[in-house]
Amino acid sequence: MNVQGMKTECSTGRKNLSLSRVSRRVPVSTLAGVRVRSEGNARADLARGLMPLALGNIGMKMPESKRSIAVSAGADPPDVPKRDGRQGGREWLQSILSRFGPIREKSSNTTVLDFEKPLVELDNRIKEVRTVAEENGVDVTDQIKELEERARKLRQDTYSRLTPTQKLQVARHPNRPTFLDIALNISDKFVELHGDRGGLDDPALVCGLGSIDGVSFMFIGHQKGRNTKENIYRNFGMPQPNGYRKALRFMRHADKFGLPIVTFVDTPGAYAGKNAEELGQGEAIAVNLREMFGFRVPIISVVIGEGGSGGALAIGCANRNLIMENSVYYVASPEACAAILWKSREKAGAATEALKITSSDLLRFGVMDESIPEPLGAAHTDPMGAFPAIKEAVMRNYRMYENMSADEIMLDRYNKFRKLGMFEEYLVRGGDREGAKEALSKAPGAKTKAGTYAPTSDDAEFLEMMADMEEKWEATLQDKQEWLMKPETPAPGFNSPGLLELAVAAAEAEGKSIGVSNFSQTNEHAGSNGSSFENAPLH
């Protein structure tokens, strides 16, 4: 490659030197692989490569500081990508990003529940068989398929017969997907919002705007951590009062701009520390409960882990309450319930069964409206498989209220909670509830002596008995009989509670031994003489 007719002007102090012709063969390798973005850049690169040659022809030396960037003939300039086997930009970037891809094998320190140990052992056995077969070049495809089918059936059988205590353990599993995991995977775009407009923020309760299939939502949810450091930062998912005030601020924002609200519940309860009580924890929860019934936009609540007490209900007053298959929802934790009723945390298992906190029980009682199925082995074993089901359930329930007016949405939410706690009262003999309910539906009806309708003759007899007891109580009140079995007082003069004990203690303090009979006699003697008890001598 010849470069001719190139004019270069060099300024060296007072002298201006002009080079009319510079002819030098430049190896093709000098410019090989250079991407020319513009004509000016190409000329600058070429001049930079020829500069030391031009200065050498006129007897000048390059400064030492510039000599380091000079390129000798036959060598590549520093800005030319090297082709010596090193990776290019794209390959280098892919090698970096590959380190952050999904893990292919579970870590050895992953939390394993007691009932999951046989499943983990079978999975490890399958991996060992596959590894040995690959190393020895043996085809064991059929054997591996058989083991995988056996593992699938064992996993299905295990998780279909979980006890309430085991479901509670699954709901608290540290690898279970958190609110941010779900929000970032079911939404097309998510932006987190901060602050309660009172100078505080709470990492345990996260709020943000997100969109799903072109529909904008206000996402609010409890956030737990993955390890000890994150849990301390998130306060183990237990919000402070400022967290609930932050949630209320953004719920009001969503109501003002017509954004549907989706809440994700995953908390053992509101934080009960001294600082939280001083800041008004109960007031913050109560205000949220009151305000959520007045919002004109649909509210959908999803229990993704554990929902405890008022801390969960403060963002759970929704039109539709959904719960994941292995989640729990309770008014008090089983440990707290056992400590209150049995004075021991060892009874937590019995409390878990008595509280009826599983998704199936909550659906049967009407507390929850729908259960979201989880992948085989629960959501903590396959989080990516749980996200599509959550997204589908949220959108399907949202479509139910898409064409409703604001008044219809508020009335629907009000009626939902008014129906909670309604019960049907009827007599059951021998614990046969189904038989009693069937007999109740077929009963011809009966009436009491007063003419009150009752479904059966037994019910009529029971109503008469209750009416007689009420009449007897009213008669007792009219006769001023405050006691059915009036307690006996020790003596007429000792009507004041504790007076007898006080007198005995005073006498013993003076070193005198005196009995109750002596007090009675003294009191009677004092009363007959017309003197007070205080003036009577103690003998």
Provide a short characterization of the protein structure.
With 539 residues, the protein is α/β, with parallel strands linked by helices. The protein contains 21 helices and twelve strands.
Structure, explained:
With 539 residues, this protein is an alpha/beta fold. 45% of the residues lie in helices and 12% in strands. It contains 21 helices and 12 strands. The protein has helices at residues 39-57, 64-67, 89-97, 117-136, 141-160, 164-171, 179-186, 228-234, 241-257, 274-278, 281-292, 309-313, 334-341, 348-355, 359-365, 383-399, 406-418, 433-442, 457-478, 499-509, 516-528, and strands at 8-12, 15-19, 189-193, 205-212, 215-222, 261-267, 299-308, 320-324, 328-330, 370-372, 446-447, 453-454. The strands form 3 sheets. Strands 3, 4, 5, 6, 7, 8, 9 and 10 form an 8-stranded mixed sheet that branches. The chain has a two-stranded antiparallel sheet with strand order 1-2. Strands 11-12 form a two-stranded antiparallel ribbon. Helix 13 crosses helix 14. The longest helix has 22 residues, at 457-478. The model is unreliable at 1-40, 42-62, 64-73 and 516-539 (pLDDT under 50).
| Tally of strands | 12
Describe the biggest sheet?
A: 8 strands, mixed
Shape type = globular
Structural class: alpha/beta
Helical proportion? 40-55%
Rg (CA only)? 41 Å
Low-confidence sequence ranges: 1-40, 42-62, 64-73, 516-539
Distance between the termini: 138 Å
The portion of residues forming beta strands comes to 5-15%
Question: Taking all residues together, what is the mean pLDDT?
Answer: 77
Number of helices: 21
